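Problem: given the chain below (223 residues), write out its structure.
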Amino acid sequence: MNAATTLRDFLLTGMHGGQWRSADRLPTERALSEQFGLSRGSVRKVLQELRDMGLISQTVGSGTYVTEQAPGLLASMASDDPLRHTSPAELMEARLALEPAILEMVVGNATPADFRQMEECCARAEAAGTLEEFEHWDGRLHEVIAQAAHNSFVASVFRLMNQVRSQTEWGALKRRSVTPERRAHYQGEHRQLVRALQARDLDLARSVATEHLVRVRRNMLNY
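Solution.
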């Protein structure tokens, strides 16, 4: 998933989950550009797409606002989306089955550029000032790792999993379960996983990934 798609999903999820309601003003183009590492032109293209969908309106000198019809439009979109019916427990079950399994491809195919992206995700997560921002870069790291397998089918599956992570139910569970101590532990496990992949140590990478996912499941779902 590129940064523009990530921004689009971030805005749609925020509107669908009630972070921004009808008549609320969205963050400025400048703020979105800085948060997602996009040019102002790329941010404008995403906003234009949402405006064309009838979800936002823009007023010169005032800002970008959620339209009155946005809740109904979003509800219609969600009703046809099977991902909306995937529970956090189902997602964790899939992650435990799939994420350790793809690491052999990652170890064999990852490039220096892939590793730089992984390092950037770790650094952005560690610097995040909010849980929402941390969760964004947490999810992005796992997606970048999947992309490093250089297999288009695997990348598509992980894009779908990140879409499920963006749902309100997942976010609510994550907010309730993540303490500062747990977040620090997750960050340390992310660094361990990236180091193992850089060393092409498949056994260690699988062990770290599995332990991390089991910990997340236990903290979120209590089993």
